[in-house]
Structures are given as structure tokens and as C-alpha cells.
Amino acid sequence: MSSSTSSQPLVSPAGTARLLWMVLATVAALALLAYLVAFDQGAVSRSGMFLHELMHDGRHLLGVPCH
């Protein structure tokens, strides 16, 4: 009986690298979002008070102390 074995890997190196970059980009985006909501206090807001108040309300919804 001869068994056929393939020497191809289950995941290609290019696929692994792409997955790694996608995970890193997602983590970076979540870190930026956490900064804007929890720690920014409106300092990045260039469009007036609307963005500040939106983030302020988001902090209240998440239970982050901001006063």
C-alpha cells in the first residue's frame, strides 16, 4: 500500500503574515479607540464641541470616570 503524502503546508507564509498584520491593525485601532473614548477628554476634537460631547457621553455609557 502506498500512501500519498503532500508536502504542502496547511497555511502559507504569506497568509500567516497577512493574518498577523490584520491582527496588529485591529489591536492598534482598538487601542486608538480606547484612547479617544477614555483618555482624550476632547483634546483631539477639531470639529468643535460635538465630538467632545459624543466622546463624553460614550465615557458615561462605558462607566469611565471623567469628572
UniProtKB/TrEMBL annotation:
Record key words, sorted: Membrane, Transmembrane, Transmembrane helix
InterPro entries assigned: CbtB_put
Membrane-crossing segments per the record: 20-39
Pfam families given in the database record: CbtB
Keyword Transmembrane helix: yes
Designated name of the protein: CbtB-domain containing protein
